Amino acid sequence: SPYYGAGEWYVQDAGSLLADALLDVQPGETVLDLCAAPGGKSTAIAERLGSTGCLVANEPVAGRLDALRFNLARHGSARYV
After folding, report:
1. Residue 63's pLDDT band (boundaries 50, 70, 90)?
2. How far is CA 32 from the centre of its chain?
3. Helix (H), strand (E) at residue 30
4. What is the pLDDT of residues 16-43, one digit of tens each?
């Protein structure tokens, strides 16, 4: 879908959705995602942060970093490192 390619929506598994709901991230907070790839939780967190706050997206498995980078960039938020 062109909407998926443009970052308008992202398919998440139940675990990502549950983590997002339980965290209840608010704008202005700083959040650390220690196992961030492929990016489902991270993009949901970035969405909740809006134009404030910061997401630190970490991935300890080097082979998964490209997927994380791609999905965060596609999402369009500048509020992550």
Report:
1. very high
2. 11
3. strand 30-33
4. 788 888 999 999 999 999 999 999 899 8
Q: How many Cα neighbours within 13 Å face the side chain of 46? A: 23
What are the CA-CA distances from residue 44 to residues 53, 62, 68 (Å)? 13, 22, 13
Supply φ then ψ for residue 21, to 5 degrees.
-65, -40
Rounded Cα–Cα distance for residues 11 and 59 (Å): 19
Compute the chain's Rg from CA coordinates. 12
pTM comes to 0.82
DSSP 8-state assignment for residue 76: T
